[in-house]
Amino acid sequence: MEQTTQTPADILKKIRVLEIKTRGLVEAAFAGDYHSVFKGRGMNFEDVREYQPGDEIRAIDWNVTARLGTPFVKKFTEERELTVMLIVDVSASGNFGSTTQSKRELAAEVACLLAFSAIRNNDKVGLLLFTDRVELFIPPKKGRSHTLRLIREILFFEPEGRGTNPALALDSLNRIVTRRAVVFFISDFQAPDFSKTLSVSGRRHDFIAFHVQDEREKVLPNIGIITLEDAETGEQIEIDTGDRATRARFVDLANEQQTELLRTLRRNNVDAIALRTGEDYLPALRSFFKQRERRLAIR
User: Can you tell me the distance from the alpha carbon of 65 to that of 62, in angstroms, rounded to the nearest whole number?
Assistant: First the structure.
């Protein structure tokens, strides 16, 4: 993705196009799914009122009751506002894409959809960009202009690092965001083990992982001898894609990595969604949220 050649007009145009597309999806199809799954979970104390037959005994405010000599109960209202954190991997491997879309562009579009869904739900949204370091943190706020700033950063921020270290991002999240939040973690997860910090984040927050993938990272085409380069380390390797055993081993390694990632996420009670460049992500998102809504309903 050629970020350095973008003019301010190009940047504004791209953000505007993305805003129109994702806002349309939010209004037409996605907002109801988001609201039903991420509506306010907590309860805030509002006031007290006199006890009425049928009220829960557990709701009696014994201090007020003793002071006034007649039973009073506490009134609560649902906590509507949520804090949403978008944590997005902007490492060099995200610039890869074998279709017209890179993994980073897909991550930005999904993050945009989630951000506008959150704003429509009257939630606050924050952003943390990371590579092998924390590149940028924007505290949670509300509003369209704030959301557009987040999208601009996700699309066009030029990171200093090239590698991927989710553990540092999660450690930063755990230190900065002390109250429970909805965390959308978007990455290709081409990274060392991060299960220790994930175990803390998974307990503290409502954590959903988006695994952004590209087909060419799982299946090699039969096109003869090629040189593959690791976008993050610069390491190169020459392989013969015409060899059937080589292609099979490539698929096996990709599947092993996928299995290990899913095992790590499941072990830490983290929900996961797999997304692929060049494919419509909305069916996968809607299916995930419908399943999650059903699961929450039976708890």
Answer: 5
pTM here? Answer: 0.78
Strand order in the sheet with 271-276: 134-141, 124-130, 83-89, 182-187, 206-213, 271-276
* 3-state secondary structure (DSSP) of residue 85: strand
Number of domains present in the structure of the chain: 2
pLDDT at 40 over 60: no
Distance of CA 183 to the CA centre of its chain: 6
pLDDT (mean) for 219-232: 76
Do 88 and 78 form a contact (C-beta atoms < 8 A)? no
Q: Is 71 exposed, middle or buried (0-12, 13-18, 19+ CB in 10 A)?
A: middle
1 band by pLDDT with thresholds 50, 70 and 90: very low
50 with 165, same domain: the answer is no
Contact status, residue 188 vs residue 93, Cβ threshold 8 Å: yes
Q: If you average pLDDT over residues 269-294, what whole number do you get?
A: 88
pLDDT at position 39 is 60
User: Which tokens go with 4?
Assistant: 């350095």
Q: Are residue 59 and residue 171 in the same domain, yes or no?
A: no
- Residues 168, 287, single domain; the answer is yes
pLDDT at 7: 74
User: Please, which residues have CB within 8 angstroms of residue 19's CB and are 6 or more apart in sequence?
Assistant: 112, 116, 148, 151
Question: Residue 10's pLDDT is what?
Answer: 76
